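Sequence design from tokenized structure. All designs in this work follow the same two-part layout: the structure record, then the generated sequence. An example of the structure record is given first.
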């Protein structure tokens, strides 16, 4: 039976000005609290639009979900897998009936899962990497994904691509190893600079990298797009002074 999706909020349809920020933050996210949001509104709405349009058969979320993004992905997917070393994630989201939780090292769990799904003819068509990984961990995760031959169009989303370590890992990944690579935009949604309140400390955070793998070889050279590279290099410069205020409220 074809899955019919119903919008969880009509705020985009009726343009109601009476709806406050809390409801806006939860748009298209049925079980998501606005507390401890990892994603900005632009990142979350981009993910929601992609999920609504793509309607994944099988989605994989890699990393600890601190921002209640897993329920959103599970809502739009026929089946979802959460890969994380933190067993508390399963306790938090055990109400998601179409979601399976796999705990353990990603470098062991992810290739085994992809192999089993392929053997059972289940296409993986959305993967979200959603954690603060080191450059080496990011490269390891991406190398496993790039070794996968998709059965249908596969979207790869990497959150926190503006973080220097994550960004370094993405840029150092050998994307050309996959003949199925069709598109990579490191700054599909650019990140931002935030500052801790005491003492003021510069941090580059957020951003969504989007890559796409096609089910057939592309036979072309794919250029890694980095439209926000100049901004990143400027903000990452040691010459930037950080004001002594908390910018976290801009993304909550």
């Amino acid at each position: 039976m074809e899955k019919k999706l119903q919008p969880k909020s009509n705020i985009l349809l009726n343009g109601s000005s009476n709806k406050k920020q809390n409801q806006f933050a939860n748009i298209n996210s049925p079980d998501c609290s606005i507390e401890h949001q990892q994603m900005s509104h632009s990142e979350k709405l981009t993910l929601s639009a992609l999920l609504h349009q793509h309607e994944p058969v099988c989605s994989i979320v890699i990393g600890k979900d601190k921002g209640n993004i897993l329920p959103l992905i599970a809502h739009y997917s026929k089946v979802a897998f959460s890969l994380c070393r933190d067993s508390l994630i399963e306790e938090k989201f055990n109400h998601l009936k179409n979601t399976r939780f796999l705990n353990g090292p990603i470098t062991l769990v992810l290739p085994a899962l992809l192999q089993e799904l392929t053997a059972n003819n289940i296409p993986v068509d959305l993967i979200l990497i959603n954690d603060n990984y080191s450059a080496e961990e990011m490269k390891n995760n991406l190398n496993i994904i790039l070794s996968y031959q998709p059965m249908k169009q596969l979207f790869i989303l990497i959150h926190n691509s503006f973080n220097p370590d994550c960004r370094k890992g993405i840029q150092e990944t050998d994307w050309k190893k996959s003949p199925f690579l069709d598109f990579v935009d490191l700054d599909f949604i650019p990140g931002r600079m935030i500052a801790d309140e005491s003492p003021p400390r510069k941090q580059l955070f957020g951003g969504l990298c989007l890559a796409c793998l096609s089910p057939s070889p592309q036979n072309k050279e794919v250029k890694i797009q980095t439209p926000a590279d100049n901004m990143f290099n400027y903000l990452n410069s040691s010459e930037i002074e950080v004001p002594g205020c908390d910018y976290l409220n801009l993304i909550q």
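The CA atoms of residues 191 and 207 lie 4 Å apart. We note this feature because it recurs in several other targets discussed in the main text.
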